[in-house]
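Predict structure. Chain length: 179.
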Amino acid sequence: MNIGLWPEITLTYYRNQSHKQRRTYHLNHQLIHPEPSKPTTFNNMIRTIFELVANALYSGARILGITYNELNIIVYIIIIPLVWAYMIDKAYRFHRFKIAYLVIVLPFFIGGTFENNCDAMFMLCQIFLCLFYPIGINYTAASVIFCVIAPILIHIGLIKILKRVRQKKEITTSHPEVL
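Prediction complete.
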């Protein structure tokens, strides 16, 4: 049963080897913003990071004259992955990842208004982040993990790859006999 405008998601997971459990979660305000758990340093840090990023996105959206959902999708679905594709292509001197990424992502924005498409994609992102709720990761923590920590780690990894490729290129260009 769907409550209001929020979609409902049904998750099937295994609590142990023999016990299959099926639960239906309503993607509502309580699931996305549950009651605060025991205040711990870790929970406070996660909440602070979440609020800083969310407030920055709200402020940026207001300055740009677009919605929070639009800016969120522009940053996390378009810009960040496109930067990664650019970095990979730059490291290996081809344009396959940028082109493939654009071919995959651009069709999601064809048809309808950009705002409506961003709202729909944002709702899908919310559903994805809520999928971790059964294992004890709430929406706030999942947002910080997937939208802050993971992008930083991926970016650092790609920078290291770029440095390694450049060093290898410098060695082969300065000493062509070393292959």
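Summary: Residues 1-17, 21-25 have pLDDT under 50 and may be disordered.
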